[in-house]
Amino acid sequence: MNIMTSTTSPSMVNRVFIALIAGMVFLSCNSVAQNAPEAEKAAAAKPAEGQAEPDRDVPEGAAILMKCYPDFIKGYKDGKLLMSDGTTLVYDDGREKSFVEKLDDADPEDMFAFTYNRKTRIPEYLQDAGRSRCEALFKKMYGSTEAAVRRNLISVPWFGQKVLFTKVNGAADRLRAVAAELAQHPELSKYFKSEGTFYWRPVRGAKRLSAHSYGMTIDIGGNFKTYWLWKKPGAKETDRNIVYENKMPLEIVEIFEKHGFIWGGRWYHYDTMHFEYRPEILMNNP
Ligand SMILES: [Zn+2]
Known about the structure:
With about 290 residues, the protein is α+β, with helices and mostly antiparallel strands. About 35% of the residues lie in helices and about 15% in strands. About 30% of the residues are buried. The model is unreliable at about 1-15 and about 15-45 (pLDDT under 50). Zinc ion (ZN) binds near residues 212, 271 and 274. One of its GO terms (molecular function) is peptidase activity.
């Protein structure tokens, strides 16, 4: 059909063209929408190239640990993580544990006992994902003594400061990536001051080591730090009426999380200056 007849006005031609183009766009969007679920299903069913079929007996948490720490965790067999140094580590000791025992005496499985909720502003009671750390696993990766951890530390530039961070598991590289991204937000710079990274010490009032002992943790915040025990000195871990307080902008938190760091501000026992390299917690709580 020739639409350019002598009786057709230019504006009418335009309208016909617009209608034709709109129709084409509608059809193509529609076909994308119909095809997308099929494509997604196919991608999900087929393992990525070069990726072995997952072993059905591997608990989800063990599989996540293998993905996040491939230099150290090579496999899983008969309830144990197979470590690169030839040793093994029991994944689940099978013991029922109280909240405090999950912090003080964690096996790798206990590390996944809590929810890291990125959607709620105020963390739920006793949800402290990441505070449970299997000490044997972390010592195998980052070093079992202060001297051993120190041997893995390198200096990372941090907004005019130099901080020590472990190169193990690529943590120092991830911190550099965080710094590069934060540098694009000079309006937030008053929060960036480092309050400390490596410090070999037990958690206050407990036997277990602080995450700072392993060199994959940084505290920042200048004058904007909040901490559950400062708010309520003498409070017990299981107290129900700990009042949440945070001054750390979520833009900063999201940049850290993008690079594998969890934030202590998402804990019931909040510690809003604390950022710790724990990609397994993020992978388990997408
Ligand atoms: Zn800290």
